[in-house]
Amino acid sequence: MEQTFIMIKPDGVQRGLIGEVIGRFEKKGFYLKAMKLVNVEKSFAEKHYADLSSKPFFAGLVEYIVSGPVVAMVWEGKSVVATGRKIVGATNPLAAEPGTIRGDFAVDIGRNVIHGSDSVENARKEIALWFPEGLAEWQSNQHSWIYE
Ligand code: DAT
Ligand code: MG
């Protein structure tokens, strides 16, 4: 099944939104395959956001990501990349629909609480970067009640 990389950014951790975020993915019917609370180095944050290195907001973005611990996770499920992006909501929280994480819990684009991979290919790269140690092997006993 498909996997995606989801990260609760430092503002989400500081604001006590870890359980809220996990609950939304968990209740949807996706499976948590890896998770850790970590402080990342500047060079690591730059690698994660390498595609955005030419953007004017890049330095501020990296500074924000290293400003406190983040929760890095891998979630698995059918179409979890695209559906995960819907759960996360639009990049600018003011444009994000209510019911999405950014729509419900954020205001400014530079404090938008959460990251979600934008494609299956980027998910694969991000999971390899954040979890070189690999993922947990398990399947929920509820599987056949969620997937037909
Ligand atoms: P997303 O996080 O929705 O995938 P992105 O990959 O384009 O969005 O950008 C990564 C992060 O960079 C985003 O979550 C917040 C920040 N960012 C994006 N565009 C920005 C902008 N115009 N001004 C300030 N920060 C921005
Ligand atoms: Mg992105």
Automatic annotation (TrEMBL):
InterPro entries per the UniProt record, alphabetical: NDK-like_dom, NDK-like_dom_sf, Nucleoside_diP_kinase, Nucleoside_diP_kinase_AS
Group of enzyme by EC: transferase
Binding site for ATP: 9, 57, 85, 91, 102, 112
Reactions accelerated catalytically: a ribonucleoside 5'-diphosphate + ATP = a ribonucleoside 5'-triphosphate + ADP; a 2'-deoxyribonucleoside 5'-diphosphate + ATP = a 2'-deoxyribonucleoside 5'-triphosphate + ADP
PANTHER family recorded: NUCLEOSIDE DIPHOSPHATE KINASE
Family statement drawn from the similarity comment of this UniProt entry: Belongs to the NDK family.
Protein name: Nucleoside diphosphate kinase
